[in-house]
Amino acid sequence: MPMRPGTGIREFVERFPDADACLDHIFRSRWGDHTACPKCGQFGTWAKVKGKNSYRHSCRSHINVLKGTIFHKSNLPLNLWFYALLLAANSSHGVRASFLRKQLGLGLKSSHRLLDAIRWQMAAYSRPTMVGGPGKKVTIDEAQIQNITLPDHSRQSVIVMGIACEGLLLCGILPDRKRATLVRNIDRFVRPGSTIVTDCWTGYQTLKELGWDHIAVNHQRAFHDFQGNTTNEVETYWTILKRTIRAYRQMSIVNLPALLGEVEFRYNRRQSPVSIFDEMIAKLDSFPDGNLSAPVQRYVWDP
Ligand SMILES: [Zn+2]
Fold it and tell me: What is the value of pTM for the model shown?
């Protein structure tokens, strides 16, 4: 597998020497050099307002550059935010709050807030709404993640479902692994005409009757059938997900969806020619309504 290019610290310091450089980048990535002013409709010119996170148009109207981003209403200087994004982008299994705390000299609470926001940013990125299609093989599997903490501090295992096709994977939390739940989510995320590869779990047994081309691979006997069909693609993902979760002493049901978003974001870009950091800072206006955790709900399937 070719190495994904990262953004190194030298390039980072040159591009983002201070908070203003970061603000300028966010302004340009959101409104560009040749975008009409949302207020007056004219092109005109924009200038940064001194001491504020806003730009002023030649018609004198202002734009708050950070509104709708994870940086809005934060006291942390933008270049530190960007540095935290760089650290998260360049790590293969995500960063811990304690690491950010040391790197950035933050308090414990701030570093947790920062890490949450970075996850929300990754989880908010666009993902395919459906995978597969005629002639394509879609691999589906579910896994149980143990010891997830519930709001009442009890612990429970949680079922997650993974749907993979051609190197892209979608993952979400299921309420159970009953047949109806699995089928409903297959209908929702898999394009008609796909060939579905699963294990022999009874939950998948009606797929053929429902009109799907279905291959069930018997795990007990061998991890592949004689045509070379396996569910390995999703199983590899489970290994990565479980390893990431194991790094936390506690994973709560509240934080799990965002963590799924982060792991999926990284996994789906493992062969991307663009650095993850560049992709993360290319589109930062993911939260127009100001609700940072709203996109995370996309990782809770069929609640
Ligand atoms: Zn204007």
Answer: 0.89
